[in-house]
């Protein structure tokens, strides 16, 4: 074996290690992020929240978590561009692991709120840093494959959260999440910093890195970023509202017995993981991010309609609709890949971290609108109005995106 072959083999092993660590990190991230949706009902019941108040308090706690995600998105994104991607991978997982360990011992909703805020802050950095490092390491024609592996495997963390949450109890489930995170932290010591980031430090040490004003100086750049975010609105409408509220939506649809949120989350995220693989492969086949995103934006509208309008009183069929809804929004990995590919190395971590968390934080206005409309129209019409709005905005935003498949990423924003 000559030196060139040896170097290729070494690079290939390093890339697979990076993809594996990023995928495992996102697995733990999704586990911790979705665990509350799984254990919402039993945890709030033990803390004294009962009946009709469960959904309202649950959405309130999700808002605290989303606020933490939003604050963490700015902090971790900028840190990744200023100090390096690895600093985010280490710091974020340490914070959310500790937060989830402490979450196992809460005694009231007030403590629950603050620990969901802290966990959200830590969780904010995981996906953006992982996706950034993967697309900066993988050859440009295979970047989509790497991020598809990260996204599709990571989403299965929700299924694991359901299994653990439903079988071990909610307090033990939070401990499991914290322990998994701390174990993964040790594995990350084997991962090297991004070559593109190190080249940036060497070639342009005084370049502006992680500067939010770079987004605002050019209206076109800001508009591109906004569209990358709006593409993902249906994702958190489905997973944040429809699936988290599965017991309430099941009851409104006449499903008997009442669906369990934990089971709905598990099934929906398995569907979403399969959808991520399908979307990623479609993008590779078409050699286009934009066409694959358009296809799945339309598909999300179809599967949301099936969830809300196809009548069924059978619990198994309702869970099947959850799986279809998850599959329809299974373009999460491609959304984040596309966003990261739109921006230069000195701003890539910032936008790649901000984007998924701003999409996640879209649940705040979605939940607020739902709460307002539900009182006037009822649970199903309110969800229909908001879902239609999310899908229309997503499709319109996707149509106007530029193509990034095979784009050279070694450049900076000025």
Structural features, described:
This protein has one domain: MFS general substrate transporter like domains (Growth Hormone, Chain: A, Up-down Bundle). The chain is globular, with a radius of gyration of 20 Å. The protein is mainly alpha-helical. The model is unreliable at 1-10 (pLDDT under 50). Helices cover 79% and strands 0% of the residues. The protein is built from 19 helices and no strands. The longest helix is centred in the N-terminal third of the chain and has 44 residues, at 3-46. Helix 3 packs antiparallel against helix 4 (109-123) and helix 3 (85-103) runs antiparallel to helix 7. It has helices at residues 3-46, 53-82, 85-103, 109-123, 126-137, 143-168, 170-187, 195-203, 213-217, 219-230, 233-243, 246-252, 261-286, 289-309, 315-328, 332-341, 348-361, 363-377, 379-399.
Features:
disordered N terminus, 414 residues, 19 helices, 0% strand, mainly alpha, Growth Hormone, Chain: A, single chain
Percent of residues in helical segments?
A: over 70%
What oligomeric state best describes the polypeptide chains here?
single chain
Report the span from N to C terminus. Answer: 43 Å
How would you characterize the largest beta sheet?
Answer: none
CATH class: Mainly Alpha
Number of domains: 1
Element-level helix/strand string: HHHHHHHHHHHHHHHHHHH
Beta-strand content estimate? under 5%
User: Average pLDDT value?
Assistant: 87
Structural class: mainly alpha
Give the CATH topology.
Growth Hormone, Chain: A
Total helical segments: 19
What is the architecture at the second tier of CATH?
Up-down Bundle
| Rg for CA atoms | 20 Å
Please mark out the parts with pLDDT under 50 across 5 or more consecutive residues, or reply none. Answer: 1-10
User: How many DSSP-defined strands?
Assistant: 0
